[in-house]
Write a structure and sequence with these properties.
mainly beta, five-stranded antiparallel β-sheet, five-stranded mixed β-sheet, 3 helices
Length: about 800
């Protein structure tokens, strides 16, 4: 017979009840036997290691194995018989209960009454190597269990003794302690004695077989750390290798990965012993020490990490040429003496040693010295020689090994020898025009310059009464303003002269012509059409624009402007010269139905104004009505959405473009727009809505018409049933087959299992829980041989 499961089952409440603990144990297969049927004496025991426990004696044999009838045997002590009734656990499955996504309720943790302890004065019989050294219920797993509420909104109070948050302890179920065979200090009853009192039990026990202990692979590596060194921006360092070996058993199938982008691993996986090549890349790394790890992992083996460091050193700083100044300028007179020398300072603005050379590209420039090391001063000399008057450009190039060349640019301006002044004028003639008895023409300017040498001191005079000069004299470059006056001049062409004089310079004359023309015929405004008419719908679109053609029906130049006398009327452009076209537009805006009049006035200098009357007729807008003006929906939380409803949209009085919108995310309307009478379909979506009343609005809008609304009310009712989620940490025993879930409406009143789930399952959702009912839950674990544990701690859930 397989050993019974003795793995701790812990069920935890993750929402409000917290953790609770209790003891449970797994016995021989008892698929339909409740804890109340296992009647016997519970003995407090202590093993040789000091571990306390409880065991049950005087258990009726038919309860230990319900599938076989036990023959009555002679009363005798069984010795040296290998018994394996109870198996020690390896790992404790821990369980919890989480809330169902569809309900919530108040929770109660109902503790199971602990089993009373009794003393037994009978001495335990010692057993041989193959004798029982574990008693029924010898090591009872520690277990807790709780229930988490579902997402259904419910209300109710928490049971007396329970807390809304924290941990509630739960009572032990099916607990007992183990006694150790051959330990006379424990006072517990041995399995030999138990077997002797129940002779049929000895026939059901099979000697244990030697366990097979697998040897897992283990990762060995060498070296245990690596370090790279490189120069910033330089070449990558040489690759390095980590040797991987299997220091355990079985087959080592390993994987290798790096934690930094600058570090690469090749290969990234392998089987058995093998090398891994590590490559470090300097690209993008700053000066300093970079760190990373290589992670070696393999199924069944402990993960191993190899630390890697990468030291980036700074690149050497090359020399750099510093120069002051960065440009130069010399000035001299043609045929005169050479200008004073200038100094160019050279310095090293980088690192290392600066060995420089200075080269120039012009014959009139010389350098001293032309080369050197480190900081220095170079003397710059220029020679006028046979240079003519002009500006010459020069270039000095400073160069050094390992440094960028530096250009020094300069100029040498050679001026001509002094010459006498000379008068220069621009323009060399003037022409004015005006109308008899009309306005004076605009002023004009005469620019005076010295086209010779020395200083020019000049005077200006004229020989015509209708001409005025200002200023009449000055020194150097200047400007003279010429003003002519029509006065009483008759229509004719008049001539005059401006004379410019300067000491040491030849005089200059500038002719001036003034043409006086006969007064022209004044302009006159012509407009076509002479009136305009517009029509539109109240609140609707603006009517199409119209145009007015403007022409000059007189003489001269027509410079006109156009202006409306009302806000709903506009003209573009508002002004122009000569013949043109003005666009006239009207705006419906907030105008009510009716007839409106306005005008556009055309004006021009020297011409009589012209008025163009405008009429604007605004007709009534169509109307929109909705029926019904309210909608009501009802639905059950978590169930399907209610049926769609319709709203009749009536458009009276003409065509109008309408649009539909809604104010709630759970509400939808179609169609979204139209231009005539229609039927609107309203739909609600209750997905994700909790119980309650929701209000929304459907709005229909149209240009020129008042918006219409439909009020929408949605009532979501709470469901009549709920659910609960039980969760636990799975048992890790290799022969665990699954878990059985039990439910009752009274504490401890459990019948057949509600559900059976396979091993490894961490949770179960109990559905169909009725409102105003309290439910109690426990779980058990069973192995491949059918051995089932005692009930876990009991938890409850009340649905309100």
């Amino acid at each position: 017979m397989r050993q019974a499961i003795r793995q701790p089952l812990v069920m935890t409440h993750v929402i409000t009840l917290g953790f609770a603990t209790a003891l449970l144990s797994l016995f021989q297969p008892l698929p339909t036997v409740s804890a109340q049927q296992l009647t016997g004496t519970v003995i407090q025991t202590t093993d040789g290691m000091g571990t306390q426990g409880r065991r049950i004696e005087n258990i009726p044999p038919n309860l230990l194995h319900p599938t076989k009838s036990l023959e009555k045997k002679d009363t005798q002590t069984l010795t040296n018989t290998p018994h394996r009734l109870i198996r020690k656990p390896q790992n404790a499955p821990i369980a919890s209960v989480e809330p169902s996504p569809s309900s919530s309720s108040s929770l109660n943790s109902v503790p199971t009454s602990p089993t009373s302890l009794q003393s037994d004065t009978q001495a335990s019989q010692s057993m041989g190597a193959s004798s029982f050294n574990r008693t029924v219920g010898a090591a009872v797993p520690l277990a807790t269990m709780s229930v988490a509420p579902s997402s259904v909104t419910t209300t109710g109070s928490i049971a007396v003794g329970a807390t809304s948050t924290g941990v509630i302890p739960l009572a032990a179920a099916g607990a007992g302690n183990s006694s150790t065979a051959g330990n006379g200090s424990t006072g517990g009853r041995s399995m030999s004695r138990l077997a002797a009192e129940m002779p049929g039990l000895a026939q059901l026990i099979t000697p244990p077989s030697a366990p097979v202990v697998p040897v897992n692979p283990a990762i060995g590596m060498s070296p245990t750390s690596l370090s790279f060194t490189a120069q910033q921006g330089g070449s990558n360092p040489f690759a390095q290798t980590v040797s991987i070996s299997n220091t355990g058993g079985g087959t080592l199938s390993w994987n290798a990965s790096a934690s930094a982008t600058w570090l690469s691993v090749s290969p990234a996986s392998g089987t058995g012993n093998g090398p891994v090549t590590l490559t470090a890349a300097t690209a993008g790394l700053s000066v300093g020490t970079q760190t990373a790890t290589i992670t070696l992992s393999a199924p069944g083996a402990t993960t191993v990490t190899v630390p890697v460091s990468f030291i980036i050193t700074a690149a050497p700083v090359p020399p750099a040429i510093g120069a002051n100044p960065t440009n130069f300028s010399f000035t001299a007179t043609q045929g005169g003496s050479n200008p004073a020398t200038q100094t160019l300072s050279i310095s090293n603005t980088g690192g290392g040693t600066l060995t420089w050379q200075a080269n120039e590209t012009t014959a009139w420039l010389s350098l001293s010295p032309a080369s050197g090391t480190g900081n220095a001063a170079v003397t710059l000399s220029v020679a006028t020689g046979t240079l003519t008057a002009s500006t010459y450009s020069g270039l000095i190039t400073l160069s050094a090994t390992g440094a960028s060349p530096v250009p020094i640019r300069g100029t040498f301006t050679v001026t001509a020898a002094p010459v006498p002044p000379a008068i220069g004028v621009s323009p060399t003639s003037f022409s004015f025009a005006a109308t008899q008895s009309g306005n004076n023409p605009s002023n004009q300017m005469l620019s005076i310059s010295n086209t010779g040498g020395g200083t020019l001191s000049w005077t200006a005079s004229d020989n015509a009464a209708w001409l005025t000069l200002s200023p009449a004299s000055s020194t150097g470059i200047g400007t003279v303003t010429l003003t002519v006056a029509t006065g009483t001049l008759t229509a004719a062409t008049y001539s005059g002269t401006i004379t410019l004089s300067a000491t040491g310079a030849s005089s200059m004359t500038v002719p001036v012509t003034f043409t006086v023309a006969t007064a022209p015929v004044p302009p006159a405004i012509g407009a076509s059409p002479t009136s305009l008419s517009f029509a539109a719908m109240q609140g609707g679109a603006n009517p199409v624009t119209q145009t007015v053609s403007i022409s000059n029906t007189g003489g001269g130049t027509l410079s006109w402007n156009a202006s409306p006398n009302t806000t709903w009327l506009a003209v573009s452009p508002a002004s122009g010269t000569g013949n043109g076209t003005a666009t006239v537009s009207v705006t419906t805006g907030i105008l009510t139905a009716g007839s409106y009049t306005g005008n556009i006035t055309l004006r021009a200098t020297g011409a009589s104004s012209v008025t163009v009357p405008v009429t604007f007729t605004v007709t009534s807008a169509p109307t929109i009505s909705l029926s019904p003006t309210s909608l009501t929906y009802t639905a059950m939380q978590g169930e399907t959405s209610p049926a769609n409803q319709t709203v009749a949209l009536t458009n009276a009085g003409g065509i109008v473009n309408w649009t539909v919108s809604d104010s709630a995310s759970w509400l939808g309307v179609s169609p979204a727009s139209g231009s005539s009478s229609s039927t609107l379909t309203a739909a609600v979506n209750t997905t994700g809505l909790i119980a309650g009343t929701y209000n929304g609005t459907i709005t229909v809008s149209a240009p020129g018409s008042s918006s219409k609304t439909v009020a929408v009310t949605l009532t979501v009712s709470a469901p009549t049933t709920s659910s609960a989620i039980l969760t636990w940490t799975p048992n890790t025993d290799s022969d665990g087959a699954g878990y059985k879930i039990y439910r009752a409406t009274a504490s401890g009143a459990y019948g057949a299992a509600l559900a059976i789930v396979p091993a490894g399952t961490p949770s179960y959702q109990a559905t169909g829980l009725s409102v105003n009912t309290t439910y109690f839950f426990v779980i058990t674990a069973y192995d491949n041989a059918g051995n089932e544990s005692s009930f876990s701690n009991e938890v409850s859930k009340s649905i309100f």
